[in-house]
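Thread title: Can someone regenerate the structure for this chain?

I was given the following input by a collaborator and told the matching structure tokens would be attached. They weren't. Posting the sequence so someone can regenerate them.
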Amino acid sequence: MLLAMAVLRNILIFGQLLSLVRTQNVKFFPCDSDENATTVDCCGRSLKKVPTIKSNTVVSINLSQNKIHHVEKDAFAGVLNLQTLKIIYNCQPSRLRALDNDSCNMEIHPQVFKSLHNLTFLYLSGNSLKSIPWLPETLKVLDLQNNCIFQITQPLKTPNLEGLFLTKNCFYANPCYQSFYISEMVFRELHKLKNLTLGYNNLTSIPKGLPPSLESLDLRENTITKILNGTFANLTMLKYLSLEWNCQRCDHAARPCFPCPGLKPLDLYSNSFYAESSSIIYLSLRGNSLTDFPEGIFRPLKNLKSLDLSDNLLACTMQNGTFFADLKGLTWISLIYNYEPLRTFDRLTLSPTISNISGLEHLLLTGNFFRELSPSSLDVLSQLKKLKTLELRMNFITNCNLTALTQLPSLIDINLSQNMLSFLPCSSSTPSEIVAQEGCHKNNLYTHNFHDQPMIVRNREVPSNNEIWEPNQSNELGMNKDKVSQFPSLSDFRTRFCHNKLTFDLSQNDIISVNKHVFLGMENAVCLDLSFNYMNQALKGGQFNSTKNGADGGDTVNGVIRQAFYMVQQRLLDEKVDAAVLVLLDEMFPKLKYLQLRKRLCRKSVLTWPKNPKAQPLFWNEMRMALSSDNLKLYDNNMSESFV
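Best answer:
Regenerated them for you:
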């Protein structure tokens, strides 16, 4: 019997391998190909030269992540129908390359692409190229990012080009010690160009002669100091414009930071964004040390939907300014990290003119440093009837009346993570701990006692998911990255089951215990995150008795959170190990494969709420067992960390 089972297992394994082999064409070994021999994949093969490929059917070749340093003239003579060619990351510039590859410089023969009359997409990023080879007229997308190209003076002779990507040819990790220059002549023939990226290039001014066909322009992380009147007047098709981090704010930078001379902000004028019929729907002025705006600067932007003003110094302008009045069509705005250095405010105060943004759906106010979300604060916000998302992370809030949030009828996502909420009587900080100004009009600004505050470090390149909305350029690049399946995280879980449902995030606060008073204002919550607090009480169910039934009258668990999940992540007494327990309140959840796997790894880490009230005492006993430190030894650390 055992022998028969072993034979059967081997047959099954062989069958699986056979099916895998059938999907791979080894005609172009060591590269792979699809069954029809149209796509050849040579990625990551440690190749030192372009392999000889002769085929009339091949239309796409990927030679990325190899060690090819020379591309000869006849390298692609055998694939005349080639449409897409990727030769990326074969020789990264200087400080970006791997330690074991300390000397390389790719050389491409100037005429290598001359016979490729169908070439449409050409990706050459990350190769330390110093010049651009001859290009076919058929080209639509050209990717030259992460190279050593500092000047482009001659026309590319690619009249069909729609996407030109030149990011990171001259910046602190790939220094060129000069200003990137692109001649006005280059743009004269590019009548179809839609997407142009020039970020991280040490540009000192906006290039002249930009084609009117542009729809997306990325000028982030340069050294541009001013935006003159009428700079974008002829770009009436432009939809996405990024000018972020040109006059950088450096007091919380995670990477090398380069402010403008004299620590001055980016110089803006009333007509900096003027166009007779502007199409801009997304504008980023993030990280430019801005303290105020010229009168009417946003008035021409009638179609603007998303505005990123994060990482500036707009704390006072947010309170007293009038710029909100010209943003009537906005649906998303980020004002995160606009705090005054070493200062904090008594309460959140926003200019009444923000009520003019009647269609605003997402308001991000993380990192503006105030202690209280008071009724007066919410009086202004209550005018925003369509507001769905209110993000208030990392503001040192000690007092917040969640019941008052019911003034916002559309609000479904409230993020109060990383504050100082404890929901204890008299929990507000004493005057000796925090003394703040009442408003920007007063001169008696007091400093916060910052010795116990966490260091605030911002990564300019990798914002959090909720912070910055940016146009997706991956499709324009045409570079479909391999999708690597990952063990689902709590974030994945929330995205799937809490989307468009009332959610409160109270994680990373100072909550040491929960009772029915804590949840006042959260009666109809579907998702509640209390992770990374300091709770060590035994949960007996009575803490949630103050909550009500759902809006549709469905069954609830003690009236608290219906048809979703309740995540408890408590810090154990030794503060060295975190235990996570997922409580399922709906029968459909246990059917999910990754939850079944979680149960196998640690059977007590996924619990289901019993429908029978008599079984509830047993449930709380299982909860205590699940939170015990011994239980953590039963499952693999990597999976547990990626899950929670």
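The radius of gyration is 29 Å.
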